Amino acid sequence: AEEKSESFEGKTKETEIELTNINNILKKMEAAEGLQSEREDKLETNIRDLEAAKSDLSIRAENAERQIQVLEENILKLESDLEKEQEAHAGTKDELAAVNAEIDDI
Question: pTM score > 0.85 for this model?
Fold first, then answer.
C-alpha cells in the first residue's frame, strides 16, 4: 500500500509538473494570440488606409486624364488657329508687296 501511495504521489507530482508546463504554454499562447490580434488589427487598418489612398489616386488619375484630353484638344485648336493666322499673314504680306509694287510703278 505504501508503495502504491508513493507511486501515486510520484504520478501526482509528474501530473502537476505537466499541468504547470501546459499552463505556462497556454499563457504564452494567449500572449502570442494577443500580439497577433493587435498585429492583425494594425494590418487591417493599414489595408483600409491603402485602399482609400488607391481610390483617391484612381480619381486623381481619371481627372488628370480628362485634363490631358482637354489640353490636347486646346493644342489642336491653337495649332489650327495658328495655321489660319499664318495663311492670313502670308496673304496680307502678298497684298502689301503688290501695293508696294504698284506704288513703285507710279
Answer: no
